[in-house]
Amino acid sequence: MIECHPQAAPKPILSWSRGTELLTNNSRITVTPDGMLWIHNISRIDEGKYTCFAENYLGKANSTGHLSVRDATKITLAPSNADINQGENATLQCHASHDPTMDLTFTWALNGVLLSLENSDGPFHRVEGKENIGDLLIVNAKLSQAGTFTCTAQTVVDNASASAKLVVRGPPGPPGGLLVKNVTETSVELRWSRGYDNHSPIGRYIIMGRSALSLEWKKMMTGEQFYNFFYFRLWMLFL
Q1: 74-169 maps to CATH 2.60.40.10
Q2: What digits encode the pLDDT tens for the residues 34-92?
Q3: Can you give the residue ranges of every domain in the chain?
Q4: Which residues 6+ apart lie within 8 Å of 23 measured at CB?
Q5: Which residue numbers delimit the Ig-like domain (predicted)?
Q6: What is the pTM assigned to this prediction?
Q7: Which of 99, 113, 125, 236 could cross-link with 70 by S-S, CB 3.0 to 4.6 Å?
Q8: What's the CATH superfamily of 176-233?
């Protein structure tokens, strides 16, 4: 879009030309009543001098400018979804093409929060390489670093982005809300809520117990992952 806002009274009639060619509305060119020039699906063939003409019964004036068209910034190799274990490293690739007359920079964000890549001791690092490569290295991944990573390649005039999901697997978290019920001389009922599985599906629970006479914990019984309570018999008094 190219704007034209002449100061004139009465309101002038506006028109546009490219070089010596008067522009009229077609499938690619639109001249609005308020003087806006829209060029759709713009390409390098549209480069050149454009002139806006303003005319009323008191006179006329014009203004000329040069339109330069730059190559759009595009992601040529987008990051792929990754699945790693806690403590492992991961590399997310991101390559881009851009107009060679402009500088290209890359930024990364995790769940919408911009990442700092300047700290050499931090977990996130830009992989050194060619200007059009902005790969991200994640070192010693933590559970909290799982989520959606977004790579943005940008110049001073435009940008392009692509995203990928990183899954970080770790040991399941502890059960919560442990509740002891229906205690008798020979039995007790235990209930609990599931903890976070941290992308490592819980296969079973193990119940440990010890007596007042021993500090050694012993495995009492196990259960399937679909149950979150067990009813079992006590062969000794547990603390």
Answers
A1: yes
A2: 889 999 998 889 999 999 999 999 999 999 999 999 899 999 999 999 999 999 999 99
A3: 13-67, 74-169, 176-233
A4: 15, 16, 17, 29, 31, 37
A5: 1-68, 73-167
A6: 0.72
A7: 99
A8: Immunoglobulins (2.60.40.10)
